[in-house]
Amino acid sequence: MNQSLVTNNPVSDGVRQALETSLRGVEELLPQDEWIKKLARSEATGQPLRIKLGLDPTAPDIHIGHTVVLNKMRQLQDLGHQVIFLIGDFTSLIGDPSGRNSTRPPLTPEQIKLNAETYYRQASLVLDPARTEIRYNSEWSEPLGATGMIQLASRFTVARMMERNDFHDRFKAGNPIAVHEFLYPLMQGYDSVALKSDLELGGTDQKFNLLMGRHLQQEYGQEPQCILTMPLLEGLDGIEKMSKSKNNYIGISEDANTMYAKVLSISDTLMWRWYTLLSFQSLAQIEALKAEVAGGRNPKDAKVALAKEITARFHSAAAADAAEQDFIHRSKGGVPDEIPEVALSGAPLGIGALLKQANLAPSTSEANRLIEGGGVRVDGGVVSDKGLKLDAGTYVVQVGKRKFARVTLA
């Protein structure tokens, strides 16, 4: 927390705590002094601040890396402020060029509608649906029409637009920039005007668009919003940002056992980063837990608590407890109560082909690599021979710690 701002602008304990919550895990909060004033005014008047998060439904589902910004919304929601979950059904028709080195293809209205329904259902696992305002930016964007769009475009210059990194880099590299892409930041900024937002949240790649909202609110005679950017969450490897393409992610629709086990697989160092960005525990509680670990408590205890909290959020407390027991059972070499049943033919069948056909390995070559690493078991015994052939019968086949199948081979 910037102590000079607090010193120069005496505030109540409530505002101080709200600022601390606002700053938890953030990349930037701009301008911080304006946010302090907004918090103080809200406390004095009892009027909640309007906090906006816009998401374009570009894919049907999300992973827990996407929930970092939703968690921040929930923290601010719990302070009593009005959060607005804005679905960009209009801006999705344009396509967000943020961070792109090429034109993003727009979605069809049918894709947008289907994805938006999934997004809201998944976001409701983090936000309190009863206290969340759901809006679609087509409400005010479509009525603008051609005249309104021209008037809006007149409020920002091409020179300012070209200051944006992705536009600048593409122009310099000779890559095409379609005129409609300039409309995206304008329309996102206009959302802030339509909603009279006090604060807009986004990832670090959205900073230009968030600042556009401040600019346009001033153009339309409104008090400008503050902006808050959240960092990108590192994935299971602790190095790259969480991404499905890098296979270092936890999907929020994954089953409870898999989700729990994946959280337990992260490093002790990454665990504290995840606590800050994903846990609903207070910073004081997290610091107390850190102190206990520093004093000799097993860090696995803290990781188990985090795994159960995240699993319970997207499933239930009972499912988290069951996932813990399942993990303990597996770690002792036990077989889960429920595993996939697979029927195969072709006995005698090579172990590599069996793993591939049972969907326990993506390819025969990967199956061989797993065998070389000692990661394959048949009926509890480690397989070391890549040339092993299994006769007709039923086998419990295990790959790694979490993949099982009961294979009946004929």
Automatic annotation (TrEMBL):
One of its GO terms (molecular function) is ATP binding. ATP binds at K244. InterPro entries: aa-tRNA-synth_I_CS, aa-tRNA-synth_Ic, Rossmann-like_a/b/a_fold, S4_RNA-bd, S4_RNA-bd_sf, Tyr-tRNA-ligase, Tyr-tRNA-ligase_bac-type, Tyr-tRNA-ligase_bac_2. Residues 349-410 form the RNA-binding S4 domain. It is found in: Cytoplasm. Keywords: Aminoacyl-tRNA synthetase, ATP-binding, Cytoplasm, Ligase, Nucleotide-binding, Protein biosynthesis, RNA-binding. CDD domains: TyrRS_core. It comes from the Bacteria. It catalyses: tRNA(Tyr) + L-tyrosine + ATP = L-tyrosyl-tRNA(Tyr) + AMP + diphosphate + H(+). The gene is tyrS. Belongs to the class-I aminoacyl-tRNA synthetase family. TyrS type 2 subfamily. The keyword Ligase applies. This is Tyrosine--tRNA ligase. One of its GO terms (biological process) is tyrosyl-tRNA aminoacylation. Homodimer.
